[in-house]
Amino acid sequence: MSAARRLLAAAALMTAISCGDGRLPLVLYSPHGRDLLVEIERAWEQARPEVDLRFLDMGSQEVLDRIRSERANPQADVWFGGPKVLFSRAAKEGLLQPRRPSWAETVPASARDADGHWTAVYRTPTLIVFNREAVTAEEAPADWDDLLDPRWRDEVLIRDPLASGTMRTIFGHLIARADTPEAGFEWLRSLDAQTREYVHSPALLHEKLVRQEGLVTVWEMTDILGLIDRGAPIDYRFPSSGAPVIDDAVAIVAGARHAAEAAEFVDWLGSREALLLAAREAFRLPARTDLPASQLPSWAERVQAELRPAPVDWGRLEEEGADWMQVWDRSVRGRG
Predict the structure, then answer these.
(1) How far from chain centre, in Å, is Cα 238?
(2) Which of 216, 242, 240, 220 has its CA nearest to residue 147?
(3) Minimum mean pLDDT among 15-24, 206-215, 275-284, 309-318: which range?
(4) What residue spans define the domains of the chain?
(5) Which pLDDT score, from 0 to 100, does residue 336 have?
(6) Under 8 Å between Cβ of 261 and 51
(7) pLDDT of 93-152, one tens digit each?
(8) 102 φ/ψ angles, rounded to the nearest 5 degrees
């Protein structure tokens, strides 16, 4: 997000906060998109009519950058959504308030911060996506390395990774799986040669894929299932060698103006009611392990059957991922 866009977004948010209707404003920063956020807003405000839930939708890396810039005067109460590596980085910088949700023990220990700064709400698999009107399921790339086939030269679209926690996770995995980081960057340089465009927003990425301005991309499951549900001519494959599955977290912002209300909201967000709502309406896979599979929507069956989670060194991604993206931006982007 450019500096001008950040200023405009901040001005819009502050205008909304200052022009209230007497209800208590609870502000979320989130990359989750309107499909989920509107459902969450509607359900929470029905349960708590005295609260005005407000959200600002942006990439998860942009959320982290924004919370950093607002550290002296926090504007958000809750950071809702993004890979745990970004939340861990924020916790180390003192940007998150430690507080364990009531449901924290129902998610794996690897999906929650030991000191309670963040907890995963959803599991978000990554995948390969293609336009099914131009590419058959048999022709579509079955694994990461298939993206480098000459067939896909100038047909790959990529969400710009500098603003996207999802793409940082995918690129980080592709670097870390190589014998050396240098070999990983060389692989990404080959992918760069296949790439038609690095797109600045998920919405634009989806539009271009539907219009066949590119035939293949990599992204995350929930957005893609939502597009398919609305009739978009796209389909997906989970990479056969394994797909990183993002522990999609939530946290209370340090210095939040409405910390008590934020804690109550986070408790509700991980409840059975809210998780099943998110699964039904926005294709979110719960991080909780105590929900029977029979309660989940039918789409989850295909996911559970086809998904092969990749082993990911999340600690290494947390420690080295930001530097890797700087190297990628300087020496890989546009140089394939």
Answers:
(1) 17
(2) 216
(3) 15-24
(4) 3-123+246-296, 125-244+309-331
(5) 87
(6) yes
(7) 999 999 999 999 999 999 999 999 999 999 999 999 999 999 999 999 999 999 999 999
(8) -65, -25
Read off the pLDDT of residues 217-234 as tens digits, 9 standing for 90 and up: 999 999 999 999 999 999
Say if residues 64 and 86 touch (Cβ distance below 8 Å).
yes
Q: Which of 98, 89, 167 is nearest to 127 (CA)?
A: 167
87 contacts: CB under 8 Å, gap ≥ 6: 79, 96, 113, 117, 118, 249, 251
Q: Which superfamily is assigned to 3-123+246-296 in CATH?
A: Periplasmic binding protein-like II (3.40.190.10)
Contact 256, 77 (CB under 8 A): yes
268-311: per-residue pLDDT in tens? 999 999 999 999 999 999 999 999 989 999 999 899 889 999 99
Length of the chain measured in residues: 336
Residue with tokens 């809750």: 78
Give yes or no for a contact between 178 and 184, defined as CB atoms under 8 angstroms apart: yes
Same CATH topology for 3-123+246-296 and 125-244+309-331: the answer is yes
133: alpha, beta or left, given left = phi > 0 and alpha = psi -120 to 50? alpha
With beta carbons less than 8 A apart as the criterion, state whether 68 and 59 touch. Answer: no
Distance CA 242, CA 234 (A): 21
Percent of the chain with pLDDT over 70: 94
Determine if the pTM surpasses 0.85.
yes
User: Shortest CA distance to 145 belongs to which of 121, 168, 178, 172?
Assistant: 178
Domain 125-244+309-331: which topology?
Answer: D-Maltodextrin-Binding Protein; domain 2 (3.40.190)
DSSP code for 311: P
Residue 285, amino acid: L
State mean pLDDT over 157-169.
95
Angstrom distances, CA of residue 124 to CA of 75, 127, 190, 197, 249: 27, 10, 26, 24, 10
- The greatest distance separating any two alpha carbons of the chain, rounded to the nearest whole angstrom, comes to 59
